Fold this protein.
Amino acid sequence: MNPNVDGFLRKAEKWREEFEKLRMICLDSGLTEELKWGKPCYTYQKSNVVLMHGFKEYCALLFMKGALLKDPNGILVQQTENVQAARQIRFTNVREIVEMAPILKAYIKEAIGVEKAGLEVNYKKTSEFVIPEEFRNRLDEPPALKTAFDALTPGRQRGYVLYFSAAKQSKTRESRVEKCVQQILKGKGLND
């Protein structure tokens, strides 16, 4: 048991009982408990396997490589269409967790097996994402922008493309692109 996770649980105003039950299930699976991104994270030989987190309507176990799990019970949820690897199992009360404990342990065991086998998620390449027209047009203007964008890591490129694409109106996409040009030219990601 990690004392940092104890502190997280003491501060948890919502989902405390659920988190405590999930914690016991994760620890019973032989995982190492850490606090990462401000959330309880359970690792196998320093590889992140599962994370606990809470939202307004539910709390969840997030399997880092959930896309590789078989999911015979059909309970893994892809948070958004752009999430490629992670999958959640969601809960709204502690009773659900207690009833699902054997299933959760089986999913965790499979997730540990994924790590032991060294399996990796095949991520879509940035080129497979649709680049919004507003950004494509801007990339054609000064060659330095395209050069700087191409030099970014694939994750940073995806971050920008998804951010620009998320805007519903062309005017908003143009505004977002304009605000990010200097950041791209400096070789920085959206959140750097």
